[in-house]
């Protein structure tokens, strides 16, 4: 790829690309149509002059065109291209941004029925040790489910064919969480760890972390910027997940609406939440 300065003649090809789209002249004026093969030859000649391929010229033209049409949204991409002298990564970002915008503008899924492009699940994992001991500070406030019961939940029936699943788990049930992903038909990708500012209970070590597995089916879209595998934020009420997590999910995973199963509270207006009524919602989805 040429230096940033060498991109100037190539970026001028953007003007030629826009003219090509309008038949070789400025928009609104009449002229003959230019064939695709002729346009390709023009890009190849311009690219040869600057030391890049005709395909690279087309990518540069698309970035420049997008930045000029919507500078607030895409202007930073052109700046990055000019500063680095590279277009491939910038062009990929442009494609992802456009895909994310199209997804967010899709008709929303039917409430409680889906299909959802993004699903967060916080199952009622079983904790039978000292379950009925009133002195146990870690006693659960809600009905528990066995791993087998969690595995047969029809989560996949609510999922889009291109779906991202976030499955919350604890240190104890981390091995079981992978079994659940397999049962639901999702492929594990990575894990986010929530580090809390206080120490909880435990039998071998006192817990200060929870984990959420990120898994997919199909080919979902993500817009990765500075999101990492570590979330450091204070803990809240028992089993309640931090608002920062849901904000991160919305930025990383575009969707018209989101599903939160076993919700302890509502993360926001973009979320369809299923708490104690989750089984009734699944019954409706199966009808």
What would you say about this model in short?
The protein has helices at residues 7-21, 36-50, 54-69, 71-84, 88-104, 147-151, 174-184, 243-252, 278-285, and strands at 116-121, 159-169, 187-195, 209-217, 230-232, 258-261, 271-274. The protein is an alpha/beta fold and 287 residues long. A seven-stranded mixed β-sheet has the order 5-3-4-2-1-6-7.
Properties at a glance:
287 residues, Rossmann fold, elongated, alpha/beta
Topology:
Elements: H1 7-21, H2 36-50, H3 54-69, H4 71-84, H5 88-104, E1 116-121, H6 147-151, E2 159-169, H7 174-184, E3 187-195, E4 209-217, E5 230-232, H8 243-252, E6 258-261, E7 271-274, H9 278-285
Parallel strand pairs: 1-2, 1-6, 3-5, 6-7
Antiparallel strand pairs: 2-4, 3-4
Helix content: 25-40%
Element pattern in H and E = HHHHHEHEHEEEHEEH
Count of helical segments?
A: 9
Task: Assign the CATH architecture of the largest domain.
Answer: 3-Layer(aba) Sandwich
- Spatial strand sequence of the major β-sheet: 5-3-4-2-1-6-7
Over all CA atoms, what is the radius of gyration? Answer: 25 Å
The low-confidence runs, each spanning 5 or more residues with pLDDT under 50, are 1-6, 25-39, 41-50, 277-282
- Total tally of structural domains: 2
Oligomer: single chain
What's the N-to-C terminus distance?
56 Å
Mean pLDDT: 80
Q: Tally of extended strands?
A: 7
Looking at CATH, the homologous superfamily of the largest domain is Vaccinia Virus protein VP39
Largest sheet: 7 strands, mixed
Strand content: 15-25%
Output the CATH class name of the largest domain: Alpha Beta
Overall geometry? elongated
CATH T-level topology of the largest domain:
Rossmann fold
| Helix-strand category | alpha/beta
